[in-house]
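Incident review: delayed structure delivery

Summary: a single-chain prediction request sat in the queue longer than the usual turnaround. Root cause was a stuck worker, restarted by the on-call engineer. No data loss occurred. The affected request and its eventual output are reproduced below so the record is complete for anyone auditing the incident later.

Affected input:
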Amino acid sequence: MEFYFPTDLGERLAYCSAAFTAFIGLIVMFAPGYTYRFLRLQVREGRTEAYAEARSAGGFYLGFGAVAILLAQPMIYLALGASFAVAAFGRILSIMSDRGSVWLNLLLLVVQAALAALPLLYGFGYI
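Output delivered after worker restart:
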């Protein structure tokens, strides 16, 4: 079995979105403290369950990105894009209702929108 790297531009962009998702998952899973600092969150003293939650979420991102890379199927890319689109919608709701309109939230909204758009555009055949 050979390593598959897409030759079509659209699939290559969707592949890059999946690879970035897996990379972020790897970081979150193995460095939850740095992730929390970047997101400006803190763990309460004596309550280390938050690290387990971050590692679990990182594992989900890593697994989803890795499966999208390994299977390289349009429906998997559609699922990845739809997941990021719903996450971006949740961030928009947070910005509007929680007064979370800070630069970090806006930056992460742009990142999530891009990670949603690339696989969705490929999956629907636009690129």
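Verification: The mean pLDDT is 90.
Action items: add queue-age alerting; document worker restart procedure.
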